[in-house]
Amino acid sequence: MTDPAARLLHRDDRVLILDKPAGLPVHAGPRGSASLEDWLPALALGKRRVPQPAHRLDTDTAGCLVLGRTKPALAELGALFAAGRVEKTYWAVVRGAPPAPDGVVEAPLLKRSTAREGWRMVVDPAGQPARTAWRILGQASGLSWLELRPRTGRTHQIRVHCAHLGCPILGDPRYGGGPGRLHLLARAIALPLDPPVAATAPPPPHMRAALAACGWQEG
């Protein structure tokens, strides 16, 4: 088993920031499959209280996940996320390209369910407001490497907004990105605490070839 502590990007008495691997759900499903919950006892790191996640990442999204180590810290973190004061930066490799080198997509999102396909998020005027800024960092044949900064925190927001721009995320079959592994990384996070806390996650192994093709260089 992976040593969870070896994946820590930041550690202090109040906050941990973990480099969550792609494929690991934050919470156990109804079948009790492996999840981040299995890692939490090892992440107590001498404290009586087991740390708890302050937000969520999709199962297939890799990168920065914030955990609170005390009740007051968890409450403060929850308030920061709820108020939209946490600066979140994502990297994605997408099929095609957005319509401009940079911009902002504002498209409300609504959860829709069907008996045949299950649930998914869709752009719908009746949905919750959702806003994402994007910037192209590099391109290759048929692919683009994007930096994305969500200004709201809706379910599947980045995945749906990329598809809405005409460039679904590589490896996202639900929203048009085709088969394979999801090429989405919670690259960096900045918490306006006192003192401020920030961390940056490295690209996971399955994203490195596509990122390199688009111009990314390690280090």
UniProtKB/TrEMBL annotation:
GO MF, one annotated term: catalytic activity, acting on RNA
Residue ranges of every copy of the Pseudouridine synthase RsuA/RluA-like domain listed in the record: 15-164
InterPro entries per record: PsdUridine_synth_cat_dom_sf, PsdUridine_synth_RluA-like_CS, PsdUridine_synth_RsuA/RluA, RluA_PseudoU_synthase
Biological process according to GO: enzyme-directed rRNA pseudouridine synthesis
CDD domains found in the cross-reference section: PseudoU_synth_RluA_like
Keywords: Isomerase
Entry-linked Gene3D superfamilies: Pseudouridine synthase
Similarity remark: Belongs to the pseudouridine synthase RluA family.
Name of the protein described by the UniProt record: RNA pseudouridine synthase
Protein source organism: Roseicella aquatilis
